[in-house]
Design a protein that fits this description.
By secondary structure, this protein is α/β, with parallel strands linked by helices. It contains 9 helices and 11 strands.
């Protein structure tokens, strides 16, 4: 299975370029424009390596590194544009696996990625220890990648599974379309709410007793969507 790399950078062009080049080299990619969205993506447990910019809006890369280490155990390669940032990283010795200074040569980055993945290949993947989530009559198991309702299996596509997983990590909480796009599809999809609408409609067809009157994933008009557990 291809390794999944999460690219975290507020530079749209860099994210798109890196995603394209990494996928051309056999990796799968996810991306985020800020640390908060990146951590939400990592919470689903399917990331093997993070390429993390230090100078991010909101939570910076140094704080994000602590979260990736303490909560998810995911190896991180820092992307840094300024020598001052690099000095700070080296001085703090926070524990990033490696760093690459911008602008960087793609071959150099690919080599660093291979080294880090090889070094950490025997580390237990976070997804392998992720606990199943049971909310009401619906159970989602990240490790087995299965969903059941009243113990009956539900066949979901990978994107539908990630979308449902994102909802179930925050039950009874309204999540906006842009937040769902950032966490499930990546920053490049923000501003395309129809993508969320279509996939939620497909989920309705698979997990709702009456797709035309959904009870599990409901629309909060003008705000977003939320997951409401249903009892057996």
């Amino acid at each position: 299975m291809a390794k999944q790399i999460l690219i975290v950078d507020d530079d749209d062009l860099l994210r798109r370029s890196l995603s394209f080049n990494l996928e051309q080299n056999g990796y799968q990619t996810s991306n985020a424009a800020n640390a908060e969205d990146a951590l939400a993506i990592a919470s689903r447990g399917n990331i093997d390596l993070v390429l993390l910019d230090i100078g991010l809006p909101g939570m910076d890369g140094l704080d994000a590194l602590r979260h990736f280490q303490n909560h998810y155990g995911i190896p991180v390669i820092f992307l840094t544009a300024r020598r001052r940032e690099l000095d700070e990283v080296l001085g703090l010795e926070l524990g990033a696996e490696d760093y690459v200074t911008k602008p960087f040569d793609l071959d150099v980055l690919l080599a660093r990625i291979k080294v880090v993945l090889r070094r950490t290949k025997n580390t237990i993947h976070p997804q392998e220890t992720a606990k199943a989530i049971q909310l009401g009559d619906l159970t989602l198991n990240p490790a087995a990648h299965t969903v059941t309702i009243q113990r009956q299996p539900i066949d979901l596509t990978p994107r539908e599974f990630d979308l449902l997983h994102t909802f179930m990590l925050q039950p009874n909480t309204v999540i906006t379309s842009d937040d769902l796009l950032a966490r499930v599809w990546g920053a490049e999809f923000i501003g395309q709410p129809q993508v969320v609408y279509v996939h939620i409609r497909w989920l309705h067809e698979k997990i709702e007793d009456d797709p035309n009157h959904p009870q599990r994933i409901v629309t909060v008009r003008g705000v977003g969507y939320k997951f409401q557990p249903q009892e057996d």
